[in-house]
Amino acid sequence: MLVIAGTVPDLNFPLVTGPARLEGDSLKVGDHLIPVLRGTPALVAAAIRTAEVVGDQSPHVILAGDTGRGGGSRLVYRHIVENAQSFAGTTLTFHYLQPDVDWHNRILMALDALSLQPVRIADAGFMYAAKMSGYAASYDLFTPDVGELAFLADEKAPHPFYTRGFILHQDQNAPELIERAYAHDNAARYLLVKGAVDMFASGEKIHWRIDSPGCEVMEAMGGTGDTITGMASALIASGIDMEKGCHMAALANRHAGMLTSPTPATQVAEIVRAIPQALASLQKG
Amino acid sequence: MFFRKLFGRKKAKTSRADRGMLLFDHTSDVIQAENILKAEGWTIKVMGPPPEIQRGCDLVVEFPLMEQMRILETLKSAKVHPVDVVPVTGPLLSPVDLFHTKDFGEYLMVRAANMKITIEKKSRMIVNISGGGCPDVPFLADQLTGKILEDAPQPREIGHTLCGYALQLAYEEIKRQCL
Q1: What architecture (CATH level 2) is domain B16-93?
Q2: Pfam families, from UniProt (chain B) (predicted)?
Q3: Between A101, A216, A265, which is nearest B128 by CB?
């Protein structure tokens, strides 16, 4: 089972847990409707579409409203710590959460105590907290974009905002940044680096690169990294090997982008709608 | 004697012993304090805290220590309350000051750190905001996307985190380039 923990940009949205499904361009969790614009709702929507294609069950979500003051994130953190037992053996994806090292470490301790470990995937704010905590290596997969990779590569930066200039300048040189992130133990077991060239790496090597079909304008579109992580999470949760699942997700995202004939003004909901067709074309090919 | 004077002066110039840090619960409080203090003409800087006090999305306000009492009074009048005031004893982290601009023809994108803002050049409408990982990013994107650059709320007014602060820098840079 895939479990996704994150936030929605609505201060009044309560802590909501349960299976998520799509109703048009909105997520439905219990009685709650959440528009899919970007962020965690986009990740969840991509995971739902992917689960439908591979015949897997819908993801279970843990969501709370948070617009940056951290209250909703703390509700999510607390829920995970108090219900850690229920995540044994799942694939657990952490997403837009207020970076908080104390809460991150409490979650890690609770998960470490499980006899059957979940597959741990981290992106966005929770990935920042995982790196800041010094326990990045406790994760199975991080899915940074190139700017976030520079942050992982900077052993001194507590947040991408503080990535030192001499490292930020190297963001065209991802292999060097990957090597540096692993050298300082600031990377998960695997990295799926999202960008003009998508890469999948471990501490030993870069396993693959994808640069086509090329869709340069997707760099400007909010949420396209979220859809890759959502697809990868769903594929891994369905039992597909992590390297292959990430490869399929990265490729399908490019195909989904091309299907929308995007401009920098295209919104991610259009990508989400194209995911089934993109995944189907991969399965045929 | 000449060299002693010279080195003495140099040491005084680089010393941070006369600087203090205002610590706040939230980045949004830091942003508010920065706005208030800069409007009052104080020489302050928003910086990153030293590792021993880093918790999450952190910023501190570095200020001249000798002015502590008046600065605290100014903030108190504005109902912005730091949780602590400590002297600066070591180097503080500098926020990113590098911008990356990408021209897509009809569209222009500016990136600051992990945050990107894209506008349609002709209308100056904000068409997309991407990057970032703190929970105010999707909120800021909702609030800014579809608005004309000069009419949109400033990220610093409604954001709360370092990602929001980075978006403010990208927003200022794209305004500088386009207005």
Answers
A1: 2-Layer Sandwich (3.30)
A2: DUF8182, Se_S_carrier
A3: A265
